[in-house]
Every structure is written in structure tokens, then in C-alpha cells.
Design a protein that fits this description.
The protein is an alpha+beta fold. It contains four helices and five strands, in the order ααβαβαβββ. The chain is globular, with a radius of gyration of 14 Å.
């Protein structure tokens, strides 16, 4: 998928989609995997589990609860991708329809800062 095509899919979306779009516009790296993987319901369960883990660890997220809800509602296979911000501080997980023509959900997560060891 070309960068401009992905930008169109993210345009006009919710706050997390806008943040992902901004990361893309700023030159962030992205990848969209061609193969369709697990159903969106399986993905929703996995991200619900991650949500609890992220909360326990204090990891900041964007759109996680809504993304899980949208994946459950979609109930079909999804194509996945990700955008990494230029500074690497945010990763946006993308879930597209099987053919890649529409955005199903977008979830953002701030990478925890690495602690330096003495």
C-alpha cells in the first residue's frame, strides 16, 4: 500500500487515527502486511488482554477500548499494519478490511522509556 493511500484511509477519523496520520505525514515508518490473518474477534480478545497488561504497567494508549469494540463488531478477517512515529515513541497498530480498502480500527501505544543501567 502506498503512503498516500494509507493517508486517505486515516483522514477524517477519530483522535487516534489523526495521531497515526500525523506520524505518517511527519515521515514515520509504516508497513501493511498483505496476508489476512486471524479474524477480528481473535484480535479483539488479544488486545483486550493487552489492555489489562498495559494498565498494570502504566503504558499510555490511544483508542484501545474503542479499537477492541470496533474489531468485535467487524467480526471478519482483518489485514494488519503499523506506523511508528519518527522518534519511535508511538506505535499505531492498524486493522484494515480483508481487501485493505477501509480502516476497521486504529490503536496507539506509547513505547515505555527505557531505563538506563549504571
Amino acid at each position: 500500500m502506498e503512503r498516500h493511500e494509507l493517508m486517505q484511509l486515516l483522514a477524517g477519523g477519530d483522535a487516534v487515527s489523526k495521531a497515526a496520520l500525523a506520524a505518517l505525514v511527519d515521515g514515520g515508518e509504516y508497513v501493511i502486511w498483505e496476508e489476512t490473518e486471524l479474524s477480528s474477534d481473535v484480535r479483539a480478545r488479544a488486545y483486550e488482554s493487552r489492555r489489562r497488561s498495559y494498565q498494570r504497567r502504566g503504558i499510555e494508549t490511544m483508542g484501545l477500548e474503542r479499537g477492541v469494540q470496533l474489531l468485535r463488531e467487524h467480526a471478519r478477517p482483518v489485514r494488519t499494519g503499523k506506523i511508528t512515529s519518527v522518534d519511535g515513541s508511538w506505535i499505531f497498530q492498524l486493522f484494515l478490511t480483508e481487501e485493505g480498502s477501509d480502516l476497521v480500527a486504529c490503536i496507539g501505544g506509547r513505547r515505555p522509556e527505557r531505563r538506563s543501567t549504571p
